[in-house]
Amino acid sequence: MRGGRLTWFNVTSLALGFAFLYLPMLILVIFSFNDSRLVTVWGGFSTRWYGALLQNQPLMDAAWVTVRIAFVSAALATVLGTLAAVALTRYGRFRGRTLFTGLVYAPMVMPEVITGLALLLLFVAIGLDRGFWTIMLAHTTFTLCFVAVIVQSRLVAFDRSLEEAAQDLGATPLRAFFTVTLPLIAPAVVAGFLLAFTLSLDDLVIASFTSGPGATTLPMRIYSQVRLGVTPEINAASTILIGLVTLALLTAALVTKRRAAR
Amino acid sequence: MPPRPSRLFARLVPAVPFLWLVAFFLVPFLIVLKISLSDPASAQPPYRPVLDWAGGWEGLSAFIAGLDLESFVTLSGDPLYLDALLSSLRIALVGTGLLLAVGYPLAYAMARAPARWRSVLVGLVILPFWTSFLIRIYAWIGILRPDGFLDAALIGLGIISRPLQLLNTETAVLIGLVYAYLPFMVLPLYASLERQDPTLVEAALDLGSTPRRAFWTVTVPLSLPGVVAGSLLCFIPMVGEFVVPDLLGGSETLMIGRTLWSEFFSNRDWPLASAVAIVLLVVLVVPIVIYREAEARRLEAGR
């Protein structure tokens, strides 16, 4: 669609839409620097809740567990998701393809309570001790589908003759994949990894079902505190998380921009 | 199609993710089905297996003879569960309607914005989706609670004189759902609106159509694939949503995802929780299949 016609209606839609999306988070960030314990009354600028956060050992432990789970599961999901995307775009019609595409798309819309319960019952049935590794397996499973869809949209968009040329020139399919295909889809693979990482970092429901006594993730910890009400400490924790995600996305955007410019 | 490489690697590419998803997504659902047919017990794990695989045919016939569908009988006997399911469907349907009403003007304005702004605008819609769902819902507790930011702002502007008491109502749940799922609605809508050929609307205008008529007879019908994708992408998970009704809905909002959660964690009735999951799955299987078909067609069209 050709653009350039910014009517009043469109400007208002954009302004209202983005205000709706960003105001709640902005309020959260501002009030994390509030000196008062009363969360809606401004009592002066202070960073004391950030200090209190560092002293909160259970919260810090949970954060560390969460980051480790997110890293391992995102790495695994990136490999599996990329393979799934290649299978969906480069293998034509193979046996079980309909089931396969169903299995890739369904976890993305499946209500988390169902996925969580199903995975828990599987872990109980095979007698796996619940904890770090079961959450990791669960997160790999639902995030790999998001990776697959991102990589797939990149794979359908690029010129396939490049791969064929490499193979015609004598490269094995494996070599053609690593020297031609992978560099071309790298931005999508990186984006998939980042998305898998943040989805894992963020997940409450599936982690609650699949965790055991030993492993409490940050969202589980935040959830149990949030149920008791709004606290400035959680505002501070939220601000750090929002800041980290923004930083990661800006870095990713700059990296892809520089790549494109070269 | 290039010559199919018959090497080991080429065979492993589809096999590894396929087997992973079968093991960790398909098989678990079969186990849910099996547990939903067993009887609850105060044991660890808290159910009595009714199906004994080791027993062979005898085990299987004993299983069929002993099949009393106790959990499903409980489900259909207690109006609480039906109410929860119906109110989930209603809330998800109203939420989808609201999302279309909020998301369509936003997506339309994005698609009509100058080309160099568009990628920034898309980035701004995606950004909240990358930040924690839990935190974004949590932010609304402070806004909606009595004497929260919304009440303070509206009273300060003289629009209302008494607090609205929105927290712990269905209105709060709907606000939270629209807020949380807005990126999922806007992105497919934007994708289909951005692809449209603007000369079609111009042609309609040249032929004497009013802008409003051109919008409803040209723009909207052409964006229907985006409307369908966005609506299903929001509707399906919203039916089973847990976090939003739990944090913003208070004790009065009945939603099936919450029922499943409390049957599992509070009542420790695993067979009943599994039966709720099966019922929810049966209700959602049709929209899920339509969604998969729609997505596959969209990808084919993008080729």
UniProtKB/TrEMBL annotation, chain A:
Membrane topology: Multi-pass membrane protein
GO cellular component, one term: plasma membrane
The keyword Secreted belongs to this UniProt entry's keyword annotation: no
Keywords: Cell membrane, Membrane, Transmembrane, Transmembrane helix, Transport
GO BP: any one term: transmembrane transport
Keyword Repeat among record annotations: no
Subcellular localization(s) per the UniProt record: Cell membrane
Highest taxon, organism lineage: Bacteria
SUPFAM superfamilies: MetI-like
Residues in ABC transmembrane type-1 domain copies: 63-253
Predominant location: membrane
Entry's transmembrane regions: 7-33, 69-91, 103-126, 132-155, 176-199, 234-255
CDD domains the UniProt entry points to: TM_PBP2 (cd06261)
Family from the record: Belongs to the binding-protein-dependent transport system permease family. CysTW subfamily.
Protein name (Swiss-Prot/TrEMBL): ABC transporter permease
Organism in which the protein naturally occurs: Salinarimonas soli
